[in-house]
Specification:
The protein is 77% helix and 0% strand. It contains 15 helices and no strands. The chain folds into two domains: 1-72 and 149-397, MFS general substrate transporter like domains (Growth Hormone, Chain: A, Up-down Bundle), CATH 1.20.1250.20; 83-139. It starts with a helix and ends with a helix. The protein is mainly α. It has helices spanning 2-12, 15-46, 51-66, 84-102, 108-134, 149-178, 184-190, 192-208, 214-232, 246-268, 276-317, 325-337, 341-345, 349-383, 388-396.
């Protein structure tokens, strides 16, 4: 549905109104991210996780009931133009790629092989689409759209900030539930500083467009998020409280809010009307891939951080076992088998301090990696060209 939503908005509005409409779409994403974990926590804690699927069914019926409120657009292609073969090939390629990423922590060799196979299938898909277009048929994906710099950069930013947001929420939720031992509802409450920052600044961004251009606002957002990640990198300890994490979470979410509100508009403003649906599909694919990859990739980073923490702890408390891979694995296995954090806190000081080092090292490593990814987003943002609408508004003021 998402590409269709973006296409409807792009086909309905133009200029400043389109910028505001697309920013509003980003705001709705922020609202969902703000209330989704809290609502999910309420359902899981007080009812059952199964009810979440029942509530989604209600939402689907609501959408179906409201469809007549959506303006009709004259089709630009017929059903005979549908590229079924391209759809099948692209689906297989994307499934293989995402599946390989999701299984990285289980068997890296098989995962890499599956990802390579997925990339090969996607390369075949691109070749087939080029061949189909040369034959005068309508391709599922117009590869020529990638010649547009802002579309390439915008889709990449969309992928990376979703990877960062989903991956960041994953590790923060994991910390809340394993170290602070919060239930699903309290975890949603504890993440409110992040999601509140995301919501407030995504709402504020459209109002700032007349004063600052897209690139500047997105760059400011990236810098704010980087600061938030660096603040958080010093906060995760065995004795950390929810209050300790409020400033870093808020800054991290606030910066993402800037980027979330403007990315789609930046990606699409040079795309002609007849190609908006195709281009919005590209952007939405980047978003979906980022969300799918976020938990898996950041999960791998977390494991690497844990192993680094074990190395530091062994060097500190058992230097005679430094470089002993079996001893390091035994330490890893020991903490894997521990039922809850209270069991660790009941042990002697060496065990407690070792756990503290592992937690601190692992979470700091994740936050530093997230800061680097946001740094890449910042560089990509600077490569974009500004919306003509925002440029003209600045010139007129």
């Amino acid at each position: 549905m998402v590409p269709a939503i973006v296409s409807i908005i792009s086909g309905t509005y133009s200029g400043k109104k389109r910028t505001i409409a697309l920013a509003t779409l980003g705001i709705m994403g922020a609202v969902a991210n703000a209330f989704g974990p809290l609502l999910g926590g309420v359902i899981t804690t007080f009812l059952s996780w199964r009810f979440a699927f029942a509530f989604e069914l209600i939402i689907i019926f609501f959408i179906l009931g409201m469809q007549n409120k959506i303006p009709n657009f004259k089709p630009t292609e017929s059903k005979n133009d549908l590229d079924i073969i391209g759809a099948v090939i692209s689906s297989i390629g994307l499934v293989l790629l995402v599946f390989g990423i999701l299984t990285l922590s289980k068997d890296i060799n098989i995962s890499v092989a599956v990802m390579i196979l997925g990339l090969i299938v996607l390369a075949i898909f691109i070749w087939y689409e080029l061949k189909r277009k040369r034959a005068g048929k309508v391709p599922l994906l117009d590869v020529d759209l990638f010649k547009d710099k802002n579309l390439r950069v915008g889709a990449s930013i969309k992928l990376l900030y979703n990877l960062t947001l989903k991956g960041g929420l994953f590790v923060i939720f994991l910390f809340f539930q394993t170290v602070l031992q919060l239930n699903a509802f309290d975890t949603g409450l504890a993440s409110l500083p992040l999601t509140t920052g995301l919501l407030i600044f995504s709402l504020t961004t459209p109002r700032l467009i007349g004063k600052l251009n897209h690139k500047t606002l997105m760059a400011i957002g990236c810098i704010i998020s980087i600061v938030g990640c660096l603040v958080l990198s010093y906060q995760f300890r065995l004795n950390t409280t929810m209050l300790d994490l409020i400033p870093g979470q808020f800054l991290f979410g606030a910066g993402i809010g800037f980027v979330m509100a403007l990315t789609v508009d930046v990606a699409l403003f040079d795309i002609p009307a007849e190609s908006q649906n195709n281009a919005s599909g590209i952007v939405s694919t980047g978003e979906t891939l980022g969300s799918s990859m976020g938990t898996a990739i950041i999960g791998i980073i977390l494991i690497l951080g844990v192993m680094g923490g074990i190395n530091t702890a062994v060097d500190t408390y058992a230097p005679e076992y430094s470089g002993n891979e079996q001893f390091h694995q035994d330490v890893y296995d020991y903490f894997q088998k521990v039922g809850n954090i209270d069991e660790i806190k009941a042990q002697d000081s060496v065990i407690v301090n070792t756990a503290d080092i592992i937690i601190q090292n692992a979470m700091a490593f994740v936050m530093q990696v997230l800061a680097i990814i946001i740094g890449v987003i910042l560089i990509l943002t600077l490569l974009c060209k500004n919306s003509p609408a925002s440029t003209s508004r600045r010139g007129s003021t």
